Amino acid sequence: MENGSLDYWLHECVDESSVLQWETRLKIARGAAKGLAFLHKVCEPHIVHRDVKSSNILLDEDFKAHLADFGLSRLLRPYDTHVTTDLVGTLGYIPPEYSRGDVYSFGVVLLELLTSRRPVEVCKGKNCRDLVSWVFQMKFEKRESEVIASSIWNKDKEKELLEMLEIACRCLDHDPRRRHSIDEVVSCLDGIGM
């Protein structure tokens, strides 16, 4: 893909003039969510990706999102009696209980889009924590706006930014039964700014 991976643009690109603006980030989130919805609901048999992360979201010349790397994917056939619970994926994106894993992992990607932080920071000391725990702690402290990357923070867009944060947190709910389905995620993302 012409623009490489989302991971590159969020974490590797050092050129300040090349920072992804909010509108582009929202477009990428919507496109990736629709791709996941296609895998989960439209194609037959349905597919669970099992490794949704920013480095597996590729961007074309127009920054349209494309899901990549299906090496860990599983087909969900109607006659399957169970789905493997083998722990696969990438640290920081794997849900605590592995159920509805793609939605959880996509929630982490949404947090990356909002914060420009990696899911797991490589650092030393007890102040180092994973992105999900940090965001939920900030939310608990009513400091949601402080998690938004300064490069995209805009008071005029605060409502949209916080709407996406709420969608991400619903994807990351500790109780998988309360998590959004991928269809709900698509609908909510499409509703941002409307």
TrEMBL record:
<dbReference type="GO" id="GO:0005524">
    <property type="term" value="F:ATP binding"/>
</dbReference>
<keyword id="KW-0675">Receptor</keyword>
<dbReference type="GO" id="GO:0016020">
    <property type="term" value="C:membrane"/>
</dbReference>
<protein>
    <recommendedName>
        <fullName>non-specific serine/threonine protein kinase</fullName>
        <ecNumber>2.7.11.1</ecNumber>
    </recommendedName>
</protein>
<keyword id="KW-0677">Repeat</keyword>
<feature type="domain" description="Protein kinase">
    <location>
        <begin position="1"/>
        <end position="194"/>
    </location>
</feature>
<dbReference type="Pfam" id="PF00069">
    <property type="entry name" value="Pkinase"/>
</dbReference>
<keyword id="KW-0418">Kinase</keyword>
<keyword id="KW-0067">ATP-binding</keyword>
<dbReference type="InterPro" id="IPR051564">
    <property type="entry name" value="LRR_receptor-like_kinase"/>
</dbReference>
<dbReference type="InterPro" id="IPR011009">
    <property type="entry name" value="Kinase-like_dom_sf"/>
</dbReference>
<dbReference type="InterPro" id="IPR008271">
    <property type="entry name" value="Ser/Thr_kinase_AS"/>
</dbReference>
<keyword id="KW-0723">Serine/threonine-protein kinase</keyword>
<dbReference type="InterPro" id="IPR000719">
    <property type="entry name" value="Prot_kinase_dom"/>
</dbReference>
<keyword id="KW-0433">Leucine-rich repeat</keyword>
<keyword id="KW-1133">Transmembrane helix</keyword>
<keyword id="KW-0808">Transferase</keyword>
<keyword id="KW-0812">Transmembrane</keyword>
<keyword id="KW-0547">Nucleotide-binding</keyword>
<dbReference type="GO" id="GO:0004674">
    <property type="term" value="F:protein serine/threonine kinase activity"/>
</dbReference>
<keyword id="KW-0325">Glycoprotein</keyword>
<keyword id="KW-0472">Membrane</keyword>
